[in-house]
Structures are given as structure tokens and as C-alpha cells.
Amino acid sequence: QNFENKEEKEIFLLTSKDIVKITEYIKKHYNHLLWFKFIYSFGLNLNEFVNLKVKDVNFLENEITIHPGKKLRKRTVDIPSHLANELRIQCCHKSSEDYIFNGRNGKLHIR
């Protein structure tokens, strides 16, 4: 086999300093800060995040079900106490089929 033509994918990791810088920057934009908190706290990729629906949240059990893409399995995770109230606010007045987080023109996009 010829391994010379294969490209190595570069892995980009955030350091604690990077996370602090990002948090300081997005504190000025509540929605962006909330999105970052959810992505970071639940370990979501962008596709999982934009596809979260109200019906995925179980407030009685304090859990949220994550529906990943093709390769990963569906998982249910506990809602951290520091996010529970913010999640309730995002879900109120929405139907079960609505996305939790909306963009300017409806559903958020990963780009």
C-alpha cells in the first residue's frame, strides 16, 4: 500500500485559556453564550446541537436525549442543574416538534 498520498487530519483541541477567551467574547451575546454552554456541557457536535427538539427533553426525569448522526448511538444524559432553568425558558411556548434553539430564519445551521 502507498501511504504517502494519505493526508493526516489535524486535530484541533481547545485549551482552558481558549475556552476562557471564547467565553469572554460571547458573554456579550446571550444566545451565543447559551449555545456554547450547551455544546460544551453535553459534549455535543454541531449537528447534534442544531437538531435538538423540545420533545427530546424530559423535565420530570431531568434528562435530554441526544440523537446523533450516522455513526454514533442515541444517548440520554442528565441535564446539569446550572442549565435546567435556561433550558425550560428555551422550551416554553414551543411545541414538542419545535427545535430548542432557533436561528434568525428558523432552524439553526451548522455553517
Explain how this protein is built:
The mean pLDDT is 84. The radius of gyration is 17 Å and the shape is globular. The chain is an alpha+beta fold and 111 residues long. The strands form two sheets. The protein has a three-stranded antiparallel sheet with strand order 1-2-3, with no helix packed on it. Strands 4-5 form a two-stranded antiparallel sheet. It has helices at residues 16-26, 30-42, 46-50, 81-91; strands at residues 57-58, 63-66, 75-78, 102-103, 106-107. The longest helix is centred in the N-terminal third of the chain and has 13 residues, at 30-42. The chain is 36% helix and 13% strand.
What attributes does this structure have?
36% helix; alpha+beta; two-stranded antiparallel sheet; 4 helices; single chain; three-stranded antiparallel β-sheet; 111 residues
Q: How do the helices and strands line up, and which of them pair or pack?
A:
Elements: H1 16-26, H2 30-42, H3 46-50, E1 57-58, E2 63-66, E3 75-78, H4 81-91, E4 102-103, E5 106-107
Question: How many strands appear in the DSSP assignment?
Answer: 5
Number of helices: 4
Largest sheet: 3 strands, antiparallel
Average of pLDDT: 84
